[in-house]
Amino acid sequence: KLQKEFQGRSYDLLISHTTIVFTRFILLSWQNRCSTDNRTLGGMFYELCDEMNELDWAVALTQLMDILHDALTKTKKSIKRWVTCQLTQWIESLPNYIKVYLPKLGCES
């Protein structure tokens, strides 16, 4: 597109035009980023990141188990028994430092 917009033959003219084109590209990119990128929100983005870091994997896993437990209380006994057995087997295969955060479930075979 550079050769179609400009027909100058002088070295100074080419350098000037190229500088203008690059400056225009930088400004358009900056404007696009300001309208679409959340990092341009300033401190609000970093506060959200800090809040997300506070929700670590242990809390998230505990909340997930609580939600699953609540859902199981509303199901049939046979399904509840099967899901509890599957969860117990999954928990037993986890490393010990993760098992500490999870509840003890009983599997009836």
Descriptive tags:
109 residues, mainly alpha, 6 helices, 72% helix, rod-shaped, RNaseH-like_sf, Transposase
Describe it for me?
The protein is mainly alpha-helical and 109 residues long. The chain has helices at residues 2-5, 11-36, 43-54, 57-72, 77-92, 96-99. The protein folds into 2 domains: 2-53; 55-99, no CATH class. The chain has 6 helices and no strands. The longest helix has 26 residues, at 11-36. This is Transposase.
List the helices and strands and how they pair.
Elements lengths: L1 H4 L5 H26 L6 H12 L2 H16 L4 H16 L3 H4 L10
If helices are DSSP runs of H or I spanning 4 or more residues, what is the number of helices? 6
Please state roughly what percent of the residues sit in beta strands, choosing from under 5%, 5-15%, 15-25%, 25-35%, 35-45% or over 45%: under 5%
What's the β-strand tally?
0
How many domains make up the 3D coordinates? Answer: 2
Roughly what percent helix? over 70%
InterPro entries: RNaseH-like_sf
Protein name: Transposase
Organism: Sporolactobacillus nakayamae
Short description:
The protein is an all-alpha fold and 109 residues long. 72% of the residues lie in helices and 0% in strands. The protein folds into 2 domains: 52 residues; 45 residues, no CATH class.
